[in-house]
UniProtKB/TrEMBL annotation:
Transmembrane segments: none annotated. Residues 81-224 form the CFAP47-like immunoglobulin-like domain. It comes from the Eukaryota. InterPro entries: Ig_CFAP47 (IPR058952). The gene is Cfap47_5. GO terms for biological process: sperm axoneme assembly. GO terms for cellular component: cilium. This is CFA47 protein.
Length: 255
């Protein structure tokens, strides 16, 4: 649609509200075009009119060589995000200085490639493994965010500091995609590797994006408990009021 007749003074500011209310989980694209002309209808004089690129979309050139209008073009991408369900986070627990692999399944609702559109009012949730569904199995492997795969994913943390701590301790890999042929919902099965080096408790968010648009978020919680005892040091008394000494070595894993 078009809005005309908006006056803007020198060094003025124009606020343009944009409302996005998607009804399906897919990418929407639009362009916001702002065309400015002088209020008196005259052209802006320009000495080097001959050097202007006639195909330039941002400039409207008049016959006399002046500039009749200036155009700004802003591309808009509308990416719908599924409402995050207020449920208990999937917990990945491991003892410090150990390694654990855990399978996490997440359910994507809404429109997906090759499926019928479903209203976004249905929340994304963790899969109920005991519920029978009509499914088709398909392996879908992706290394992370990329525009060439069907589903894109990454782990987001509360801060950059937590991210730097967990990036080398946590690995995630998409193993399988299971699609319900009747409802169009998709279950993604991830394998998460957690190898903490010290006790910690950090929250994270698994963000999944469909290549055709739509974002789903799932809460995760990484817990590392106290490590096992390395060794027991026995000190035998040399006698009353006499010191007893025992020696042991500590090896530093860092410089």
């Amino acid at each position: 649609f078009y809005l005309t007749g908006i006056a803007l003074g020198p060094r003025g500011r124009l606020d343009i509200p944009v409302l996005f209310t998607p009804n399906t989980m897919k990418l929407y694209e639009a362009q916001l075009v702002i065309h400015v002309v002088r209020e008196n209808g005259k052209n802006w004089p320009y000495e080097h009119a001959a050097k202007l690129n006639k195909d330039l979309k941002s400039i409207t050139v008049a016959e006399n060589g002046g500039i009749r209008g200036i155009r700004w073009i802003y591309p808009i991408h509308g990416i719908p995000e599924a409402p995050q369900q207020k449920s208990v986070s999937a917990v990945v627990r491991c003892r410090a200085r150990h390694r654990v692999e855990q399978r996490v399944e997440v359910l994507l609702t809404g429109i997906v490639p090759g499926a019928t559109a479903v209203p976004t009012g249905r929340n994304a949730a963790v899969v109920d493994r005991n519920k029978p569904v009509n499914i088709q199995d398909e392996v879908q492997v992706t290394p992370g965010f990329s525009t060439t795969v069907e589903f894109l994913y990454e782990l987001q943390y509360l801060s950059d500091k937590i991210k730097s701590q967990l990036d080398s301790l946590v690995g995630i890999h998409l193993m399988q995609k299971v699609q319900d042929t009747e409802s169009g919902t998709v279950t993604l099965i991830f394998n998460i590797v957690f190898a903490p080096n010290k006790p910690m408790r950090n929250a994270a968010t698994l963000v999944v994006q469909c290549a055709t648009g739509g974002i789903w978020k799932f809460p995760l919680l990484f817990i590392a408990v106290e490590p096992e005892v390395d060794d027991v040091i026995n000190i035998e008394a040399a006698g009353l009021n006499k010191e007893a000494v025992v020696g042991f070595r500590l090896t530093s894993q860092r410089r």
